Amino acid sequence: MLKLYIIGLLILVTAILANVLASKLGLLSWYDFLNLLSDKGRDGFKEVGFFDYLWLLLLYPLALGLGYWFGIKIFQAIFG
Question: Is 80 domain-assigned?
Answer without folding.
Answer: no
